[in-house]
Amino acid sequence: MTHSEDKIAIIGLGYVGLPLAVEFAKQFFVVGFDINKQRINELNSGIDKTLEVDNDNLKSVLTSDLSADKGLYITDSLEALAVANYYIITVPTPTDELKRPVFIPLIKASETVGKVLKNDDIVVYESTVYPGATEDICIPVLEKVSGLKFNKDFYAGYSPERINPGDKKHTVTKILKVTSGSTPEIAERVDRLYKKVITAGTHLAPSIKVAEAAKVIENSQRDINIAFVNELSKIFRLLDIDTKAVLEAAGTKWNFLKFSPGLVGGHCIGVDPYYLAQKAIESGYNPEIILAGRKMNDSMGSYVATETVKMMINKGATIKGSNALVLGITFKENCPDIRNSRVIDIIEELQSYHVNVDVYDPWASEEEVKHEYNLDLKSSVNDLQSSYDAIILAVSHNEFLELSIDNLKSDKCVVFDVKSLLPIDTVDARL
């Protein structure tokens, strides 16, 4: 059973770790650990720039007392981690340029925990990985650094994160949590720990591998379904049929799965299927459907740009030196998260045609976009031109509904509404 004297350390205070840390801190003492000093300073001042946690909610749990009974102590100090007996690792698991899994953040986090690991401690991983990665990659690191023996001196669990960035309805406590542990007893302890804060309940998986697999197929399934409607969009465009109208008609059947075409980015759906695919390939199986879905979805940015250029030519526009406006750079609507945004594919494809591209996004951080994509965002609507030859609505931020698109158009302007946000009679094309 869990005890009031249990202390929790959360390693990684991003979109996943911070909301979890705040909820645990209402009942336990929590050490929130991150290597980003700027992030630590912002959080300790009560500001969460990811907007996943309300600032007042954050401030209500903050503490500077390392011996407090409960609350959130945010630090980059290794020594502070040593007070915990539960370690929850929530660092990202990206892919490289060749779409291969990159385990460096996970290994580094495991090394950090290994330095302070004690007898009977439990390390729980939330990062998305392929089945077997926790035991094959992470546990050996913990053993090597700590000098302790797995399932004798310390234990492990896996509880995949299910955070949906920007979603204020399905917050961390309201999403059912899959749990698992390295022994039946530890699995029960991990499950009980999460039950303390997850009001939606938990599902205890029979093994760590099952929990890992469950997570990675959640996003793979969604990726494949979106790939299907993206392919439909390409077909229906050739047939001069509105895809949205087709999906609305088909969606009247009770068992039709409702997905919409679009760009597939973010840190989950656009990444996680590659983890499963890589493991399948290593095991001697070529995952055709998973990789086909990824290929389709990764192609959509360049497809939108190319189709836009075609329409510009048909309207008599000169492509080289023309001006285009891309609305939105985040990976999804009403959210500041720019990780793995596929809007960049639209921008780079347009630039390959020597089109001058302006980008406006009221949600994104200018600093982050500059660092991540080397793009200079337009700061406000007032900085936009009044004669764009192409306007591409890439992200359906609510603010764009209030934008006077007509005031930004040239006489021959093409408007491509990727998200079907605008009325169909006001645009030239949409997915």
Task: Tell me what you see in this structure.
This protein has 431 residues and is of the alpha/beta class. Helix content is 37%, strand content 14%. The chain is built from 14 helices and 13 strands. The protein has helices at residues 17-25, 37-44, 55-61, 78-81, 104-114, 133-146, 184-195, 208-238, 243-250, 272-282, 288-298, 300-314, 343-352, 366-373, and strands spanning 7-11, 29-33, 71-75, 86-89, 122-125, 155-158, 177-179, 202-204, 323-327, 356-360, 388-393, 409-417, 429-430. The strands form 3 sheets. A 6-stranded parallel beta sheet has the order 3-2-1-4-5-6, sandwiched between helices. Strands 10-9-11-12-13 form a 5-stranded parallel beta sheet, with helices on one face.
The gist of it:
The chain is of the alpha/beta class. The protein contains 14 helices and 13 strands. The strands form three sheets. A six-stranded parallel β-sheet has the order 3-2-1-4-5-6, with helices on both faces. Strands 10-9-11-12-13 form a five-stranded parallel β-sheet, covered by helices on one side. It has a two-stranded parallel sheet with strand order 7-8.
